[in-house]
Amino acid sequence: KAPPTILAIKDPTWYIMGDEVFHNNKLVRSHYCRSLSLLRVGARVGIKRCSDGTLHVFINGHDQGIAAHNIPKWCCYGILDVYGGTVAVRVTSKVSNNIKGEVTLADPEEELSSACPPTKRDGQELTEEMKRMEDSSEKSPPDGDVLSEYCINEVDWFQLHEIKGRNVQLSSGRLTAKRVGSYNQGVVLTSREILKGQLFQVRIDAINSNWVSSLCIGVTSHPIATFSLPVTALGLKRDSWIICSDFVFHNGQKLKNKYGPNLDNLGVGRLVGVLVDQSSQLHLYVDGVDQGVAATNIPPSCRVIIDVYGRCEQVTVVNPYEDNASALSLHEELHASIQQENSIEEDNIEECVEPVDFTAHEKADLESHEKEKECLVLVMEEPLRSKIDKTN
């Protein structure tokens, strides 16, 4: 038997009332989103449990960010309380093909007759407001299609942008980026902006111990139309927040020291990610663990920027619906493509008169064209990074 209100449910329950998030009738978050009580006729509200166990709420197709964590994967149902001023709703999501058995729906006229005021019962004509709602629903595209496509393609799924550093090669699906030359010019961007409360992660796939320093990650609000990639991410001098080693940089200037684990020490298989929370604060995630606030006052329209630098030679975007078999296929495809490219370029490589010691750590701050032109043996004394990087 259904309880009179959502508050009477005794089983583990997560729900949003107004602009607050509740778990088992206990307030867990305030000012989460625009208050649901302010929504008008025709507004769309949706929920989604992501593969990382987080609950997201959508208002008119826009993700409001993470509402709750650790939502069970199995035996979890959506629940709706048509309460107070709301007297009628319509489900617009597609019916899942995984549902087995016959589904019986209640008589809509019988259900609505007990909820609607007398002026809307007994087959009377709809009010002008309800007519407008019906007309707009018929003219608009199916909401189920829109929300479903938005959830998969726009909210969870990331790809890398075609704009990339000179030494980067992308897989056909633009999920994997491999640096195929030198130690720098490996900057890549996400193909779209990151939403508030959304976690973006990459996996380190390959490490070259002959270099020093490693992966950098952050966000930039610089318009993509006028974006000019620097040699390294620290060369960005405007609208950027970059985490490098255990430092945080804003527009190339050091903002914070000893923040989180040193990214230079991370090995193959480690996950590195960023998230901008609802308060416009940038967070670093390492292996899914929040390292705290790295920077504040992040603009609303930002793309993630990754620098496949130094020791880090290859990364792969980790999406919620990543298929391991597909990921492996992409790696194999990228490796074959790189091998073919290298075999073609071997004929054009000029040998140096003096041998280069590739076993020694090379200083990754010298520009690649200078190193390759002079064919010098470089010995690093200090793992310094940003002082010699060139800017845009």
TrEMBL record:
Which residues fall in a compositionally biased region of kind Basic and acidic residues? 119-142
MF terms per GO, please? ubiquitin protein ligase activity
**What's the protein name?**
NHR domain-containing protein
InterPro entries for the chain: B30.2/SPRY_sf, ConA-like_dom_sf, Neuralized, NHR_dom
Per its UniProt record, what SMART domains does this chain match?
NEUZ
Native source organism of the sequence: Homalodisca liturata
Every copy of the NHR domain together lies at 1-94, 157-320
Residues annotated as region Disordered?
109-143
